[in-house]
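User: Sequence in, structure out. Go.
Assistant: Echoing your sequence, followed by the structure tokens.
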Amino acid sequence: MPLAAGLDTKSDPRALKPPSLAVCKNAEFDEVGGIQKRKPYSSIGVNILGGGTLSGIRHIERNGDERLAFTAEGLYSWSARDSAWVLKATYLAPKVTERSVNVDPTEQIETDRCEVGNCVLRCWVRNHATATSRKVYVAAEDKTTGATILAATQPSSGGVTGIDRPRLVALASKALLFFVDSSTNLVVLSLTPGQLATDLTTAATTVLAAASFNTYYDAVSDGTQAYFACRRQVTTSYTVGFVTSALAITSSNKAFTCDGPIAVAVSPGGANKVVVARANATAIRAEVLNATTLGNVSTDVSLGTASAATVNQITACYRSVQVAGQYSCHVFWTAGETVSGDATYQTETNTIDNAGAAGTETTLATNFSLASRPFDHNGRVFFNVVFALESSSVGASGSLSFRAQLQNTYFLWRDDGLLIAKAATHKAAGFRSVIGHLPGVQNIASNTYAWCGGERRVIEISSKHSGYSDRAPRDITVEMDSNEARRCVRLGQTLYVTGGEVRAYDGTNLVECGWHLFPWQFIYLSSAVAGNLEAGDYTWGSTYRWDNAQGERDRSTMVSTDTATIAASKQVVLVIDPAPQSTHKTNSCQEVWRTPKNPADSAPMYLVTSQDPTAVTGANAYVPNAAGATTLVDDFADATLTTKEAFPENNGVLENLAPPPASIIVASQDRLFLAGVSDNPYRVVYSKLRGEGEVAQFHEALAVDVPPIGGDITGLGFLNETLIVFCETAVFAVPGDGYDNTGQGQNYGPPRLLSADCGAVTHESIALTPQGLVFKSSKGWYLLNKGWGVDYIGRPVAAFDSDTVVAVHVMESKHQVRCLMSSARMLVLDYSVPSESSPAGQWSEWTIADGVSAAIWGGTYHYASSSAVKAEQSTYSATDYSLEVETGWIRLAGWGGFQRCREVILTGEYRSAHDVRTRIAVDGDESDASGPNWIVTDYWTATPTTVGKIETVRVGVTSSYQMCRAVKVSFKDFAVGSTTNSPAGEGLKLTDLSLVVGIMRGPARNIPPAQRS
């Protein structure tokens, strides 16, 4: 029996035919006709340059010749010179999902949500135009199925209806619904998932604050009860308290002025403290209270001064770790928000600890307003803001010549101002509709946080009016530390990374791909000085530009343009606003473009700013993105202008827009393709055709959808130069070339269904081989061949179908597909040795138990554990595992016949010092819980010890077991003299197995009497 075949775990153990094996561990088939031991792996090093060691590894990636490692919160690059890892960027790997929920034809604002058990509850206010028309509504759905549990229902017990400011706060098994009722009382309802309709329509509300209540309040859960704080009618005091799931209330009035928004936060870790933060005119003040008695601990602590007279929002959250021996609470506030394009308003922050000590007031963001309550993740505080400024142009008269909201977007930031992710791109609902009302953010699973923002449905834009219609609830979920936000692909000289903002890595920086926001205001100031612009009409506009470390250019689109008439030859003075803080790019610049005089509707534009960063003075200077607005003098005559760089979007070229959040990415020769799009699980988004020296740019028109019959998209690939889309239970081919950069030509598709009953479980389970695309489905391993057929190739390894795939790579030099699994193994398919029982090739199992990711660098396979990156070695000196094979049941006369098996003979090749353990079982006895009932176990020390010589192991079968129906044999190498340790070397190669057998006539004679009739 030649030992030249691999695993077959699908067959009935008693039907498994030689030479297929029941166990094949740590084996390769490089030398056809036998089995060899795989090579070992060793760490390349874990030191971090500057100190520390690499830990918490999540993903490794190849970027050209560069080796990258993603940890829980960082991106590192391997320095061969220093034999150490170098930190390149902080990266928290956020994955964003979002969807419109409970949408109706009305205006829906003041949204909030929470989850209790498997029930998702949402609330909002409908018809908010007048006090008498406002109504609070609550709806609920099953989290798993999405089925509606409760249609939109208004709290209406006893004729008391909800009209304003609803908040949902989750406790252990109930939700508390806070709202302002029709009598302008602050009230609360306790909601049980199994009786929501009854609780909303028949249960009596509990009044938290009646005649004393004045509009603003906040509420937060500590897990067992909810704390609340509210402004009083006489604003020289406020009320703070807590309420249980049974609606038992404890409250206290505090004699400190609150004439604006108010916020409350509860300390973690049993510290038993509560912070109340409040506005007192423009002063932001806070108290620390005892969480049980509500007694004062520290009072009237100054946290800062608002940047404007109107404080729009205040919110607060504790960090879950101590700093300098104290828990500290982060307080955030926004003041002076306005949609006017030339506005400057701020979101600021400070801290207060449980001893009442305040930190330093800091401005976190300009022109961004708070959009949600903050939340703690791994000891840091995160918060959502919204950009809602109008894009506009201001002409020579000082009036707005263009005005439209175009860029409303939510951004998630960390407490130090680090941008994390975005959501509701260019269609967020804008500022919160009322002052002092922010939705909560709930930790709904490990590292996963959910809140309910809003979206504005987009309508066609025309000048001088908004580009949005009514608003609706939008569920937004962010999962931190998600490997789906670490998927990478290289296009040109840049590596692109999925996540809550698709990132681009150039070897030095990890920044957003494209620009989340583009210039939103352009101001024509004057033309009073004589210059080179002739009398006539001209149009100007501006863009942002950044060149990455590889020299690839990332340029935004423009939206705000201004046309002015010059009466005589003049210079023109323009004012350019600074770039927003929603970027990771540093040392960027702004560019101004202009048409020649008297432009037609589609007249080309040319660059009027310098590209020389040292030319920062005089006319037509270079304009770096600075902290404040910049003045530019344009003095180019048309003859000079038309020799300058032409605007890339001339001639109808599609605008450059940043891509949406996405979790799946692949590349063709000149495009990126994204799926796992945050708000559409059936959509593939593709980039414009990339030009030389450019980063990938996207546009919202470049997308194709697949039918939802196969479920969400789970992966992408290419086969026969065709885009392949894998879904949960289907596979589609999407032919075509896609629209060109002017939007002309034909889109990809229509999608062609290749498989209707199996898809890919994850993007990591897909790999391109010479035979086609290998992928793991929920039913096992399949091959999408080049003829578009789907072949089942996973029968030999079906026993491992429940394992989770970590990574799949093709080692073409060894004809292997290596499938790193999360459950103590790697599965390896050698497609160079097909057989009748395994036409796709031979499978083996490698005992690699700690793999979390894999990559191929320089032709060498590497895999990562959580604490090290390990490279495949060229020798066996680091071997710490055994080669083990186990045959199926060998029956020479069928199960009905019998034989006398006297001896088992193993033939192989000696490679290094080792013992061989031989085990023999007979008659199909699998009664032992650990496998066959081995009747012979023999250890033999290999001799002679000449490397390369034939090695023969002969083991006799105990005489009382020689008469049998079948024989099973197992071989495993060990260190010399050991029954547990692996050999420190290659050990042996296996060639064949021989049995010394006598075939007996007649039926099996050793069948027990009880089995005979």
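User: And one key feature?
Assistant: The CA atoms of residues 649 and 655 lie 6 Å apart.
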